[in-house]
Amino acid sequence: IAYGLSLSILILRSFFVTLPRSLEDAARVDGLSPFKIYWKIMLPLALPSLYTVIILQTIFVWNEFLFALVFIRSLDMFTLPRGLMAFRGTYVTMYGPLNAGIMIAALPPIILYIIFSDRIRKGMAIGLQKG
Q1: All residues at 6 or more sequence positions from 51 whose CB lies less than 8 Å from its CB, including other chains
Q2: pTM, 2 dp
Q3: What does the alpha-carbon distance between residue 37 and residue 46 come to, in Å, rounded to a whole number?
Q4: How far from 104 is each of 18, 54, 78, 125, CA to CA, in Å?
Q5: Contact (Cβ atoms closer than 8 angstroms) between residue 4 and residue 56
Q6: Could you give the CA distance from residue 122 to residue 128 in angstroms, rounded to a whole number?
Q7: What is the pLDDT of residues 30-67, one digit of tens each?
Q8: Cα–chain-centroid distance for residue 99?
Q9: Alpha carbon distances (Å) from 47 to 23, 62, 84, 85
Q10: Coil, strand, or helix at residue 32?
Q11: Every domain of the chain and the residues it spans
């Protein structure tokens, strides 16, 4: 998650900077606390940006390979991409199990896309309208 943190901060900050200050001032005049302003007004407006961050972070974490390759030595702690490397040998590669593992690894992101595709499209459409 730390590798994608800078991009997430950039995306969310660039969204929150575009919000007018008068929106927060009007909520404060109505008697909302800072937490209520964030929870009831700012957070619902930021949902498309949050969906973008969630999708990008999920992809970064799911496909994480380098950290596991460099730092993790225990077989039971390997991430999925690093575990798939076990099917590749020096002289022989087991293509059947490797391809089956790749297909299994590809299923969760595909299922998540099918579930959240309408929100992804709405978020992209909102981003295009603002630009």
Answers
A1: 116, 119, 120, 123
A2: 0.69
A3: 13
A4: 40, 21, 16, 31
A5: yes
A6: 10
A7: 999 999 998 988 988 888 888 888 888 888 888 788 88
A8: 25
A9: 17, 22, 34, 37
A10: coil
A11: 1-62, 64-131
